[in-house]
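Researcher: Structure for this, please.
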Amino acid sequence: MPAFVFDPAPQPAVAVRGTSALFPARRVYCVGRNYAAHAVEMGHDPDREPPFFFMKTPDALLADGGVFPYPPATSDVHHEIEMVVALGGGGRDVAEADALDLVFGYAVGIDFTRRDLQAEAKRLARPWEIGKAFDHAAPCGPIAPAAEIGHPAKGAVTLDVNGTRRQTGDLDQLIWTVPEMISCLSRLFELAPGDLIFSGTPSGVGSVVRGDVLRGRIEGVGQIDVTVR
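Model: Predicted structure, token format:
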């Protein structure tokens, strides 16, 4: 058995609610502009357009109750509260009717974004990674197994900063539903157990500063707490 030239990094993982088990994270996909009101606030047409995706690195995951270190090279970091879909199965060209069979569970996540760097990348027609895929940019709360909570298609989505409501939406406002997201994504990538999908954010995104305390909740799924250092 060949030896590694140095010890591999630890396996990124997310807690599973009510157990000591961990969900090993393979890939982190994100769906862009999946709420019409958020599309409008970002200056885009709210009409249903084909979904598009970007990625974050698994080692950018940050656990519930964690500290988010304010990242370098930016002065405008935005919060985006999202439901996270955790896959326990995979495949290619998955039919919408079969998509929910792949879901292990759901969690509450925050898509942190270096908005100024993202805007500059857009202006120059460059990739978004510099604005999206930085260290600790993907806080994710414990996964609630679908075997316990089902597959939530409606429920309030909120985010408070220092006790003040910033974002409000509902899962029934998703432009692309979870089965549609999974099916579409499976035509672009081969999905596998351990994949996470951040499903998009409602309107109300805004800046965070050092010292802010964030609490995100999704009805029927759970909550996440994060402090900005």
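Researcher: Any notable elements?
Model: The first strand starts at residue 13 and ends at 15. The chain has a mean pLDDT of 95.
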